[in-house]
TrEMBL record:
It comes from the Eukaryota. This is Uncharacterized protein. InterPro entries: HetReg/Transcr_Mod. It comes from Fusarium oxysporum f. sp. cubense (strain race 1) (Panama disease fungus).
Amino acid sequence: MLIPGKLYTEDFLAAISVFRIRHCSDPRDRAFGYFVLRSPSLDIKSVIPIDYTLSIADLYKKLAVALIEKSHTLDVLSHVLHEWSVEKRTDGLPRWVPDWDATMMIDII
């Protein structure tokens, strides 16, 4: 049963992982768009203010902290990509924060 106002981190992590390889004109849309569309009962402004002046690195860091605090788990850290699998990483992003906009190197077998 879904509880209004509860942040479902498992749903968020699954969705943002699936759409990680999709291009966005503004990478911040990955975070802001999902919360607004998928969790309408969640007051997004109380968790992470919708603020497009935030750098992508700052937004992804705030998102990681919010997911840790709301879920009381470190599940979000399992989405940090290994350095060898990333072609391009978001500038200024701490290594412990998942880079939802990273360009991954994929080998075709």
